[in-house]
UniProtKB/TrEMBL annotation, chain A:
<protein>
    <submittedName>
        <fullName>ABC-type sugar transport system ATPase subunit</fullName>
    </submittedName>
</protein>
<keyword id="KW-0677">Repeat</keyword>
<keyword id="KW-0813">Transport</keyword>
<keyword id="KW-0067">ATP-binding</keyword>
<dbReference type="GO" id="GO:0016887">
    <property type="term" value="F:ATP hydrolysis activity"/>
</dbReference>
<dbReference type="InterPro" id="IPR003439">
    <property type="entry name" value="ABC_transporter-like_ATP-bd"/>
</dbReference>
<dbReference type="InterPro" id="IPR017871">
    <property type="entry name" value="ABC_transporter-like_CS"/>
</dbReference>
<keyword id="KW-0762">Sugar transport</keyword>
<keyword id="KW-1003">Cell membrane</keyword>
Automatic annotation (TrEMBL), chain B:
<feature type="transmembrane region" description="Helical">
    <location>
        <begin position="98"/>
        <end position="121"/>
    </location>
</feature>
<feature type="transmembrane region" description="Helical">
    <location>
        <begin position="72"/>
        <end position="92"/>
    </location>
</feature>
<feature type="transmembrane region" description="Helical">
    <location>
        <begin position="220"/>
        <end position="239"/>
    </location>
</feature>
<feature type="transmembrane region" description="Helical">
    <location>
        <begin position="12"/>
        <end position="30"/>
    </location>
</feature>
<dbReference type="GO" id="GO:0022857">
    <property type="term" value="F:transmembrane transporter activity"/>
</dbReference>
<protein>
    <recommendedName>
        <fullName>Autoinducer 2 import system permease protein LsrD</fullName>
    </recommendedName>
</protein>
<feature type="transmembrane region" description="Helical">
    <location>
        <begin position="128"/>
        <end position="148"/>
    </location>
</feature>
<comment type="subunit">
    <text>The complex is composed of two ATP-binding proteins (LsrA), two transmembrane proteins (LsrC and LsrD) and a solute-binding protein (LsrB).</text>
</comment>
<keyword id="KW-0812">Transmembrane</keyword>
Length: 520, 330
């Protein structure tokens, strides 16, 4: 401790770094979750922080944000000791957080959101808001983040990317000097992400320090000057981004060489039977004349930009949204009245893109969640007794087979599981029914690399057992690695089809974008 | 010490402990609170409340609320009374009068529940609004219906075969208690051991996830309201036969008690959480508080004020409890 303080004092003499973190430790109930993390952030630089879920990223950031006191270790800003007691003090010290879940008030306008900390008053001792000044300040901040919108617009009308920019504007309004981004691109389209990256470069050029946390290693390498890797609460790597590749990063995150992120494809097995047969599916303004097939044992991907109709297609296929015309057949039988129940009865399963919103009963335990979809299959009266022992046995078996890490399958709420384990719970729920057709929408969003590899393996195993799999993803690499065939959608239509081994990243992206721009 | 307090606050049986504590505190001032007579009176007072609270629990579990139960009771009470009253009833003197009246009670309960559920599901209206309107409508209808059949404010002269339900019993066990036991056991079994039970909790927890997982969400919500209406009808039978009159003001004041008892027991107003055993303890607690205040000889207005305070306290404990549970999980 004292040596850390001494070194901070010596730094002050020279050009002290913007933020210096030294030997940070944290224990919860005697369990050490952070075992000495040190790094420095210079002004005008970006620092990437990576690690699997549970590696200590969030704990480190919570300490920097004043939400948790460290058990040991010191922090300094400009060489001056920095020990925030709460997030207000952190904000005063010039640290702003852009959270994964945005903290904007949707029912208020952009200007009101930006002025929330201190509304400008017309007369200082009267609580009457000076709207003109509030709007002028908001307009100025919006210009700084290149967002061409009226300050009076309500936040609930903004796209996710625009909200993010408003959040950044809010950080700038507080005169932040260090901006921490926590998984900023999860809900952004690729174009919005590009805009965000340009802004990050601008922030750096203006002399601000940026801490960038993300699972998307390509982005981290592209944006950051240095990368810190955490594993099990220990800092295992800290080096310039220019000297590493994503392969190195994955290895240091996992602590073992990752032979293959993607499972090997099965040697061209004969695929004669059609699992999913979609013909002429049309819903005006959403999708137009979709016709495609997924064979048994085949993994088909759908690529496309946000708004191309890829997620909407999945919802229509599963009967959650209506379609004006077209048919969907599973194993040769057309599903007459599509509803989730009818589709499930025909053998479909659907892992939605919004795991928390449509996938899980968050306060319930793993088994209750896994058993939920199975209940519809019990061809008995709803008021008849449940075969509880059988259900629990099968569900535990499914939970084990996908390797869910939970200390109590019955009592621990899935709310407290990591993103990867939550996704495995949803996966187990559907695997239990041995679906004939499995639709997965963004199966690995917000999940660390280790869990990703496991999920790809499970999907491949499922296909090898004869299921037709449809994977929808915004990550083209994922489709390239997993799929046997990739369909590209733009403006609600299938505009291109690629078959392995002729899967080409550039061609897929070109197909997804060209039509989009041509139509705009 | 802190850990002990936390264990206590998060315990399912906190309410039982509070009940015992309350009785102990009152013992020196009103010694008759610990007596077989008082116990019997508390139990008898509990029964119809418990029926209502059990029905309400189904609706609370699917994240709804049913404010129409008291008016359902009042309306079914006067309609059934008009059927069987000896004073110019439709079926006066007929041997079938009582069975038909009982069927009328239940049909009205089921119909009101069904209408509530349909409005909530098909029209997407908030259950608070739907059942509040139903409450106003039915209580008005009950008064109007009474005025058609009686010159007084209620319909009396009910057959003896009917009043026996509320007052009689087998081998010293009142019929009402038997009915209550059957309903409580059936509800407990339905929630814990059947597909429908799982579906009710799932819909209350996350209706979107439930729909995606193949739960017939709309039907489940309608069933919850129908069960609530059915229980209200049963409670109405018990109350009406005890009073031996059909009255349009039946149970006007118990609505808050019913919802309060469920919440005190630990049923969440946000849906997805609740057990019949908790509800029984909640109703027991409120009934004991009520009885204790009566024994102290306090006026009715003070009893109301104290009960309001107790329900508020329970809500505060509920909020504290969920905060602690979140912290434990994190």
């Amino acid at each position: 401790m004292s040596s850390a303080r001494d070194s901070a004092a010596s730094e002050r003499a020279g050009g002290a770094p913007l933020l210096k973190v030294e030997g940070l430790r944290k224990s919860f109930f005697g369990v050490e979750v952070l075992k000495g993390v040190s790094f420095t952030l210079e002004a005008g630089k970006a620092l990437g922080v990576i690690g699997e879920n549970g590696s200590g990223k969030s704990t480190t950031m919570n300490i920097i944000n004043g939400l948790l006191p460290p058990s040991a270790g010191t922090m300094a800003i400009d060489g001056r000791p920095y020990a925030p007691a709460n997030s207000k003090e952190a904000a005063r010290a010039g640290i702003a957080f852009i959270h994964q879940e945005l903290n904007l008030f949707e029912n208020l306008s952009i200007a009101e959101n930006l002025a929330l900390q201190a509304f400008p008053r017309r007369i200082s001792w009267l609580p009457q808001i000076d709207k003109a000044r509030m709007r002028a300040r908001a307009a100025d901040l919006l210009r700084r983040v290149d967002l061409d919108l009226s300050p009076d617009m309500l936040v609930n009308r903004l796209a996710p990317g625009e909200r993010q920019l408003v959040e950044i504007a809010k950080a700038l309004s507080g005169d932040a000097r260090i901006i921490v981004f926590d998984e900023p691109t999860t809900s952004l389209t690729s174009r919005e992400a590009e805009r965000l990256f340009a802004l990050v470069a601008q922030l750096k050029a203006r002399g601000l320090g940026v801490i960038y946390i993300s699972h998307i290693l390509e982005d981290v390498l592209r944006l950051c000057d240095d990368v810190v890797t955490l594993r099990d609460g220990t800092m295992v790597d800290n080096r310039p981004a220019a000297s590493v590749t994503t392969g190195h990063l994955i290895e240091s995150m996992l602590g073992r060489p990752i032979a293959e992120l993607f499972p090997p494809r099965s040697a061209a097995a004969p695929r004669q039977e059609v699992a999913l047969d979609v013909r002429g599916l049309t819903q005006p303004g959403i999708v137009h004349d979709l016709t495609f097939r997924v064979m048994r044992g085949e993994i088909v991907g759908i690529a496309g930009l946000m708004g191309s109709g890829r997620s909407e297609t999945a919802r229509i296929l599963f009967g959650l949204d209506p379609a004006l015309s077209g048919t969907v057949a599973v194993n040769g039988t057309v599903i007459a009245q599509r509803s989730p129940r009818a589709c499930m009865a025909a053998g479909m399963a659907f892992l939605t893109e919004d795991r928390r919103g449509d996938g899980l009963l968050l306060p319930e335990g793993v088994l209750t969640n896994v058993e939920l979809a199975r209940l519809a299959d019990l061809r008995t009266n709803a008021a008849a007794p449940l075969p509880q022992a059988m259900l629990d046995r099968d569900a535990s078996e499914a939970a084990r087979s996908v390797r869910i890490k939970a200390h109590d399958l019955v009592r621990q709420p899935v709310l407290s599981l990591s993103g990867g384990n939550q996704q495995k719970v949803v996966l187990a729920k559907w695997l239990l029914r041995e679906p004939a057709v499995f639709i997965l929408d963004e199966p690995t969003r917000g999940i660390d690399v280790g869990a990703k590899a496991e999920i790809y393996g499970l999907v491949r195993q499922l296909a090898e057992r004869g299921t037709g799999v449809l994977v929808i993803s915004s990550e083209v690499e994922e489709l390239l690695g997993v799929c046997d065939r990739v369909l590209t959608m733009a403006h609600g239509e299938i505009v291109a089809e690629f078959t392995w081994p002729e899967l080409d990243r550039a061609a897929i992206l070109r197909a997804a974008m060209q039509r989009q721009e041509g139509a705009a | 010490m802190w850990r002990f307090l936390r264990r206590l606050l998060t315990s399912e049986y906190l309410v039982l402990l509070l009940t015992a504590l309350y009785v102990l505190c009152l013992w020196p001032f009103a010694p008759e609170i610990v007596s077989a007579q008082t116990a019997l009176e508390v139990i008898m007072a509990m029964l119809p409340l418990l029926l209502l609270a059990i029905g309400q629990t189904f609706v609370l579990i699917v994240a709804g609320i049913d404010l129409s139960i008291t008016s359902t009771m009042a309306f079914s009470s006067v309609v059934a009374a008009a059927l069987m009253t000896g004073d110019g009833g439709y079926l006066a003197g007929n041997a079938l009068a009582v069975p038909v009246a009982l069927i009328a009670f239940l049909l009205i309960g089921l119909a009101v529940g069904c209408a509530n559920g349909l409005c909530v599901v098909r029209l997407g209206m908030p259950s608070f609004m739907v059942t509040l309107v139903a409450q106003t409508f039915l209580s008005g209808a009950a008064i109007w219906f009474t005025s058609l059949h009686s010159t007084s404010v209620s319909i009396g002269d009910l057959p003896a075969a009917f009043s026996v339900i509320g007052r009689g019993g087998i081998a010293g066990i009142p019929y009402a208690l038997l009915l209550c036991l059957v309903v409580a056991f059936a509800a407990h079994w339905l929630l814990g051991r059947t597909t429908l039970g799982r579906w009710l909790y799932a819909v209350g927890n996350n209706p979107r996830a439930a729909t995606v997982s193949g739960v017939p969400t709309g039907r489940v919500i309608i069933i919850a309201f129908v069960l609530s209406g059915f229980c209200a009808a049963l409670a109405s039978i018990v109350y009406t036969s005890r009073l031996e009159t059909g009255t349009p003001v039946l149970g006007q004041r118990v609505l808050l008690d019913v919802i309060g008892a469920a919440v005190i027991g630990g049923v969440s107003l946000f849906g997805g959480r609740g057990k019949i055993s908790w509800v029984i303890l909640g109703v027991l607690f409120l009934s004991v508080v009520d009885k204790g205040l009566q024994l102290l000889g306090l006026s009715q207005s003070i009893v109301f004020a104290v009960k309001g305070g107790v329900i508020l306290l329970a809500a505060i404990i509920d909020a504290l409890r969920s905060r602690i549970l979140v912290r434990v999980a994190a």
